[in-house]
Amino acid sequence: MRFVVERDALAEAVAWIARSLPSRPVLPVLSGLQLQAAPDGLTLSCFDYEVSARISVDADVAEPGTALVPGRLLAEITRSLPGHPVEVDDADDVTLTCGPASFSLVTLPIGEYPRLPDLPRLAGTVDGGVFATAIGQVTPAASRDDTLPVITGVNVEVDGDTITLVATDRYRLAIRELAWNPARPGGRSTLLVPAKTLADAARMMSAGVPVRVMTRGADGGKGPAMADAMIGFESGGRRLTTRLIAGEYIKYSSKFPADFGSYGDMPAVPLTEAVRRVALVAERGSSVRLSFEPGKVTIEAGTKGQARARESVAADFAGDESAIAFSPQYLLDGLTAALTAASQGPQGPQGSQGPHGGDSAGADRDAAAPPTEGRIRLQFTSPTKPALITGNPSRDDPDPAEPSTPDYRYLVVPLRALAGA
């Protein structure tokens, strides 16, 4: 095997694949990253029997071949290479030469490496920017407690031409609905997808580039079929597959109150920025408090004996209960996601990470709808009952007494209720 590849293209591809490598592989060989050089270019891949990732890169291939090398070490090496083309050969070990730098890697036994799974059948397609934004809005709410695997996933409900993404950690619940193009109109299914893998999939998505979604055994059911249940995403030369989580998701619809006694309607960007600033002085376990009065909301937080902060933002308010407090991070997660919805509107041009990358889904915003025009609505009944955060692209919100259902909803338990739990 011998080929030459651009340094930046190789480093980006290896970094993306390395995110899917297991942190504690059950077999040493599963820590490997597979390099396959063929006349049409270079393919990098990994698979640990749960998650597989594959990416194609342009390369000048002199001699085709396949090698398996330590994946995380290769990622460290490619990230540090100087800005020259990289020549790779496996005359003995796998050697990378980049300008004056040269590295030799001992190969892992390719014969013991598992074969990558075939893609399941096509379920439908969706715009990469829309899907990446939706994923970024719900995944922060997924639990990280591995003792409860079901809530570490994102519940993906497909009903005709609508997908609903749901995530919760029991203290907040995020829901996002979006349109897509199903391969078989009228179909219904439920898939429980690991949240981390879904977030990694968002990194391969770009606005305007369709994402192919493939499923196998995804009936939302139980039994033997679930052992093989899988979902796959393919876009822009990248492919990611993962096994689904077995189990039944929580009955989340009943968590939403039928009505709320109070609501505040605020400009999205000023509110989010004010909460972010005030939260800087909130100590661990303390709250950010929102107090409403005619024409404004005051955000307050503090660390005893060290610092306090307060800031006011314009607000339209109605209701009997005028104050509520939240965990700073829970509140910021909801406001950030609602800000995206408020600045873009339903099914509008959604943010993405740019071509194949970026730090978070939904980072870009539609220039035709400045974020300052967006509004955020906070609805609540008491300091101990869940509150609802939603976003709207204009001040012309529906009547709060008879609101329509927005594409994004974030239900969060106030901090007083958490402390008393």
Task: Give an account of the 3D structure.
- With 421 residues, the chain is an alpha+beta fold.
- The chain folds into three domains: 2-112, DNA Polymerase III, subunit A, domain 2 (DNA Polymerase III, Chain A, domain 2, Roll), CATH 3.10.150; 122-252, Roll (DNA Polymerase III, Chain A, domain 2); 256-420, DNA Polymerase III, subunit A, domain 2 (DNA Polymerase III, Chain A, domain 2, Roll).
- It is 18% helix and 38% strand.
- It is built from seven helices and 27 strands.
- It has a nine-stranded antiparallel beta sheet. Strands 15-11-12-13-27-26-25-19-23 form a nine-stranded antiparallel beta sheet. It has a five-stranded antiparallel beta sheet with strand order 5-1-7-8-9.
- A hairpin with a 4-residue loop joins strand 7 (86-89) and strand 8.
- Helix 3 (128-138) packs antiparallel against helix 6 (328-344).
- It is elongated, with a radius of gyration of 24 Å.
- The termini are far apart.
- 46% of the residues are buried.
- The model is unreliable at 220-225 and 346-372 (pLDDT under 50).
CATH class of the largest domain: Alpha Beta
Number of helices: 7
Number of strands: 27
Helix content: 10-25%
CATH level-3 fold name of the largest domain: DNA Polymerase III, Chain A, domain 2
CATH superfamily of the largest domain: DNA Polymerase III, subunit A, domain 2
Task: Outline the biggest β-sheet.
Answer: 9 strands, antiparallel
**What Rg do the Cα atoms give?**
24 Å
Q: Which blocks of ≥5 consecutive residues have pLDDT under 50? A: 220-225, 346-372
**Whole-number total of structural domains:** 3
Structural class: alpha+beta
Strand content: 35-45%
Mean pLDDT: 87
CATH architecture name of the largest domain: Roll
Shape designation? elongated
Could you give the distance between the termini?
A: 61 Å
List the strand order in the largest sheet: 6-2-3-4-18-17-16-10-14
